[in-house]
Each structure stands twice: as structure tokens, then as C-alpha cells.
Amino acid sequence: MRRNMTAEITVRRMTPDDLASWRWLRRDGLTRFPGAFILSIDEYEARTDEVEVDFLRHGLVHGVFDGTRPLGMAALRIMPFARARHRAEVGPFYMVPEAQGTGAADLLMEALVTHARELGITQLELSVAADNPRAVRFYERHGFRQEGRLPNAVMMPEGPQTDLFCVRLL
């Protein structure tokens, strides 16, 4: 069931001016759901603002906001090699728990897909924890199909985690 969204929900590209919102969302996601990301909170905290500003400067990060309040973010990572520039990885993708089920994540994914198409991307890829059925269903709803499994993708304190490798053709 979808929760009600306010009329203030917007999706836009994040810029270096959004550093505080970006860092807050990253910390929130890494703290609440450490198994959903390959980066640990300690590794993230060691990253400088300059590194994060540089990442935001590329224009490949989108945020979803309720007014000025950040609800979620998603990034594209375009493959750096000429023969693979038709591909981009989705990640990180994160929504605060209170915004899940509101449709805000759908708006965010739609904006990311639109931007990828504008850039000439024809294939989106992502990895998702096999034991995260809600995220798996979300990506499937958005046209991602499982193409493989990566055992021991991430070593968590409770043991190795298997990821699903998913692809969406645009």
C-alpha cells in the first residue's frame, strides 16, 4: 500500500550545493542498512568533503526531496571504457524508511532512467543483496532482470553475503 506523498515531492540532480543532504543520506543508509552497500560507514566517514563534492559535480546523482527535506538519492556510474560506455551502474540507491512505499522511489528511478537515456546509456546494471526481497521486488518492478549471482560479494560481520547481478535494457 502506498502512503500519501505531499505535493512538495520533487526529484532533481544533486549538485555540490547539496553536499550536506548527500552526506546525511549516505550516513543514514549506511547506518540503518549496512548490508545494502559495499561501502562501510567507517570507509565513508574517511572520505573528505572534497571527494564527495567532486562526485556530485559530475551531475550523475539525483535526489528526491519533500520540500527541502531529503528523502532519497540515486547515482549513475558510467563505465569508463569506450567499448562499455553504453552501460551504467545504478548505485548507491537509497530511500529513507519513512519515504518507502510513498512512490518517491519510483519517481527517483524514473528520473535516473530518463537521465541515462539522455546520456545514450542503453544498459543499466546493479547488484542487490539476495536477502533483501523488498529491494529485489522494487528493481524487478522497474524492469531489472537477474542475470547472475555473486557469492561472497560482501563480507559482513555475520558472514558472507550473496548479491544478485541485475540488468535493465533501455
Overall description:
This protein is of the alpha+beta class and 170 residues long. The chain has one domain (9-169): Gcn5-related N-acetyltransferase (GNAT) (Aminopeptidase), CATH 3.40.630.30. It is built from five helices and seven strands. Strands 1-2-3-4-5-7-6 form a seven-stranded mixed beta sheet, with helices on both faces. The longest helix is centred in the middle third of the chain and has 15 residues, at 104-118.
Descriptive terms for the model:
seven-stranded mixed beta sheet, 7 strands, 5 helices, 170 residues, globular, alpha+beta, Aminopeptidase, 31% helix
The total beta strand count reads: 7
CATH architecture: 3-Layer(aba) Sandwich
Q: Which runs of at least 5 residues are low in confidence (pLDDT < 50)?
A: none
- Could you tell me the strand content as a percent range? 35-45%
Percent helix range:
25-40%
Secondary-structure element string: EHHHEEEHEHEE
CATH class: Alpha Beta
Structural shape = globular
Average pLDDT over all residues: 94
Q: At the third CATH level, what is the topology name?
A: Aminopeptidase
Sheet with most strands: strand arrangement: 1-2-3-4-5-7-6
What is the total domain count?
Answer: 1
